[in-house]
Amino acid sequence: AAGVIQSPRHLIKEKRETATLKCYPISRHDTVYWYQQGPGQDPQFLISFYEKMQSDKGSIPDRFSAQQFSDYHSELNMSSLELGDSALYFCASSRGGWLDTGELFFGEGSRLTVL
Amino acid sequence: GDSVTQMEGPVTLSEEAFLTINCTYTATGYPSLFWYVQYPGEGLQLLLKATKADDKGSNKGFEATYRKETTSFHLEKGSVQVSDSAVYFCALSAGGTSYGKLTFGQGTILTVHP
After folding, report:
1. How distant is the Cα of A86 from the closest Cα of chain B, in angstroms?
2. DSSP E strand stretches across chain A
3. A25: preceding bond cis by omega (within 30 degrees)
4. CA distances from B6 to A58, A73, B30 (A)
5. How many CB atoms lie within 10 A of CB A27?
6. What is B54-99 written as a DSSP string?
7. Whole-angstrom Cα distance, residue A45 to residue A58?
8. Dist. CA B39–CA B46, nearest whole Å
9. In this predicted model, what pLDDT tens digit does every residue of B8-31 receive, in sequence order?
């Protein structure tokens, strides 16, 4: 079975530019999570969606926004990029609600480099 | 707030050595506890989990027991292999509506030499 698909895998942007990351969850997973992992750091929770509604919010900058679409894929939009936004961005999916087992399935990540 | 503390790393072992990676946590309520592994260039994979006190999670020879009295979830393996070389993250979830909102420890780099 296909896992969580993230695109692009690598992205290079200049400061103050905009970037969009996409995440395609595992089939029949209705919950998506976004994490940011800086160099040598642990992953930090950014935001999550359940059934296309935002379900939780973590340390996501105001310059970032995200949404989940009707086919359950999600996009993370990042504007006015800063050098500190350079990181590996992970998307994870799960089955939410009463089917939630607490297990997340992570994608391979999108590496954003801001120059 | 919730937090997870892992032992200082990195850890370097010879093949077939015994592995322990310490993990302690601070949380309100009754969190679920997880160990995730990250191989080079890959995403995180769930290694094992425990959802209540005294539960033991196990997978691929790795084990960890949810100890509420010591707020710990130490990872152990009796005989490591070169293929176990990776970064290991301890994590907790507060559950409820935020099951997937994980708080991670700082990660421990494990290197196993032949």
Report:
1. 16
2. 5-7, 10-13, 19-24, 31-37, 44-50, 53-57, 64-68, 74-78, 87-94, 105-106, 110-114
3. no
4. 21, 33, 19
5. 9
6. T-EEEETTEEEE-BTTTTB--EEESS--GGG-EEEEEEEEEETTEE
7. 5
8. 12
9. 789 999 999 999 999 999 998 888
Query: What is the length of chain A?
Result: 115
Buried b (16+ CB within 10 A) or exposed e, A77-91: ebeebeeebbbbbbb
The amino acid at A17: E
Q: How many CB pairs under 8 A join A and B?
A: 63
Residues in contact with B69: Cβ distance below 8 Å, sequence separation at least 6, in sequence order: none
The H-or-E segment that residue B44 falls in is strand B44-50
- Asked if the C-beta of A36 comes within 8 angstroms of chain B's C-beta atoms, the answer is no
Nearest by CB: A45 against B43, B44, B102: B102
Q: Which chain B residues have a beta carbon less than 8 Å from that of A107?
A: 43
Q: What are the phi and psi torsion angles at A83 (to 5°)?
A: -55, -35
Q: Torsion angle, CA of A88/B72/B49/A28, rounded to 10 degrees? A: -50
Tens digits of per-residue pLDDT, B32-91?
899 999 998 788 899 999 988 999 999 999 999 999 999 999 999 999 999 999 999 999
